[in-house]
Amino acid sequence: MTLLRGFARNPVLGLGLVLLVVFIWLIALPIGMILQDAVTAQTGDGARTGVADGALTGYYLTRAFASRMSGIIFFAPLWNTVLVAICASALALMIGSLLAWLLVRSDIPLRGWLAGAMLIPYMLPVWTFALAWVTLFKNATLGGQPGWAQALGAQPPDWLAYGAVPTIVVLTLHYIPFAILIIGGALQRLDGQLEEAARMLGARRLTILRRITLPALRPAVLSAGLLMFADAIGEFSVPYILGLPVQFETLAVSLFRAISTQQNGMAAVFAGAVLLIGVVTLGIDAWMLREARRFTTIGGKGAISRTAPLRAARWPIFAAVMGVFIISVIVPLGVLFLSTLMHIPGRFTLANFTLDYWIGTNLPTVAFQSGILLTPEFWNAAWNSLRIAGMAALAAGVLGLLVGYVVARSPWRWLAGALRGITFFPYLVPGIAFAAAILVLFAAPRGPIPALYGTPWILLLALIADQMPFASRVGISAMAQLGPDIEDAARMMGAGLLRRLRSIVLPILNGALATAILLSFISGIKGVSLFILLAVPSTDVLTTFSLRLVDYGYAQAANAVVLVIAMLALLGSMVIHRAAGANFAQGLER
Question: Check: CATH 1.10.3720.10 for 1-31+376-582?
């Protein structure tokens, strides 16, 4: 009774407990259930496990870690995963750090434009680059239509066309903008007075770089590397497209194949391994962030920063940076676009160009006989993408704002901390592993909730949960800037919680809400790892529809769909920046 009176006096507590229960059900429970599947005998595995269905068993763990097949089943994909993640992160760090320094600290021409242009690859779906690579370097190993190089008379070796090398290159191109953002932001905040003082004392540039600049940037560099590594661990689409033709599997691909063949116990082991690596990696990053706060690089008299003159190297370096932009943006998008206009890839004759894969009819193919714009399945996938991503983004934005409200206003610190932690947890879980967890929870009826697999609802709930780290952080940051005085006055006038939220909080924080919704929408439109396990042909979204076209061998049509997704992602990003009153390079320009 006392508790109920407390809720009546402060309804924020009730709202917080409701949100906590919802997120435990939507986030914590699925992850717990898939981990449980790794030590529970699955239906139909009785003969292998030697125990009844549902009983505890160590069979799946033993098969993965200590059987004669462990090297093939688990350790080879684990090695491939770590190899790709380390190499892509390291290369992106090296290139991104150099580009960040050029964009922030040098007099490179068109610096403001370049600062925005170099961030575009991170706004594109990562498998845009993978499909462009296959279009260019596909060889006879895969069969079907040739790649451009093969059509022009070359025969790319397997190591160049598929496997580790192209996977690392593609992920590196995707992560370079991420490194630029983090390291460039740290460079922008670094007080140039430290370097100026060393320069006045006669220190050489290399000494200043080694003794002052690099140590000050170390937290940002290591954080960027760890975040890229954690993301690469769970990346599915790139190794799926570029690795499978030569049996180059990562843990994410092994997880997908295990679920596709109904090996749910092994899938749980793979998901647990990916989850553990992600949690440990991001845990190290969080620890490093706390350590970094012990130091300060911002002076009290206003930061200054001298622009380093590039002199005679100014235009050659500009050309090199433009080369990176061309390779990471113009080439992949151009290759994909031209491929959609060719009957035979790589044949640059007027008779070979066509609009059939966009608006053609009666195409000489078995399962794809019209251009994508005339194909009902494409429009159904587009509608599903817009509907599911839009509804999930709206729900995530509102829930994120409510989480921020409870965190800012709750008198119970444990409740605020619990909401902070549980809404951020999906960020620690790679998308393919979280999708497997959602599938385990909703594939069968659970009490009053029917089985949702095969319906749009499972995609909607998964996407809401997946976007909560971003939406909740936007809500928490926005509420931290809104003092309680206005609400206190409204409360004294008799306004209830809903009235205060509707009349005060939402109007004041509508910009933050719009940003959270748009960010979630863009992520949902271009995401594939979360949907690949949960979508069926009737609930295809654009990303899964394009991958199905890849599986069927309809490369031109798949590339056309990817271009539509890229266009939606870029337009959405522009809308965000215009709504927020910022440009792509905010934080990099002075």
Answer: yes
pTM for the predicted model, two decimal places: 0.85
Q: What is residue 587's predicted lDDT score, i.e. its pLDDT?
A: 46
pLDDT digits (tens, 9 = 90+) for 284-295: 777 766 655 554
Only one residue has tokens 């140590």, namely: 215
**Helical ranges in 118-163 per DSSP H:** 120-123, 127-137, 148-151, 158-161
- Residue 40 has phi, psi (to 5 degrees) of -125, 135
Residues in the chain: 590
Q: How far is CA 3 from CA 10, 23, 133, in A?
A: 10, 22, 61
Where is pLDDT greater, at 448 or 17? 17
1-31+376-582 matches 38-44+57-297 in fold: yes
CB atoms closer than 10 angstroms to residue 324: 18
- Segments making up each domain of the chain, as ranges: 1-31+376-582, 38-44+57-297
For tokens 């044949």, what's the residue? 347
**What is the structure's pLDDT at 327?**
93
- Residue 579: per-residue pLDDT: 60
Q: Look up residue 352 and give its DSSP letter.
A: G
Name the residue among 168, 258, 182, 204 with its Cα closest to residue 439. Answer: 258
Instruction: Give 13-54 pLDDT, tens digit per residue.
Output: 888 899 999 999 998 898 888 888 889 988 888 888 888 888
Q: Which of 232, 268, 263, 264 is nearest to 250 (CA)?
A: 232
Q: How far is CA 532 from CA 27, 134, 527, in A?
A: 19, 20, 9
pLDDT greater than 70 at residue 365: yes
Q: Tokens for 184?
A: 């460039």
**Cβ proximity of 576 and 519 under 8 Å:** yes
Are 154 and 141 spatial neighbours (Cβ–Cβ below 8 Å)? no
Nearest to 241, CA basis, from 143, 171, 167, 169: 167
Give the start-end residues of each E strand in 376-522: none
- In CATH terms, the fold of domain 38-44+57-297 is MetI-like fold (1.10.3720)
Taking all residues of the chain, what is their mean pLDDT, rounded to a whole number?
83
Nearest Cα to Cα of residue 551 among 267, 256, 284 = 256
Burial class (CB in 10 A: 0-12, 13-18, 19+), 168: buried
Region 49-74 average pLDDT: 90
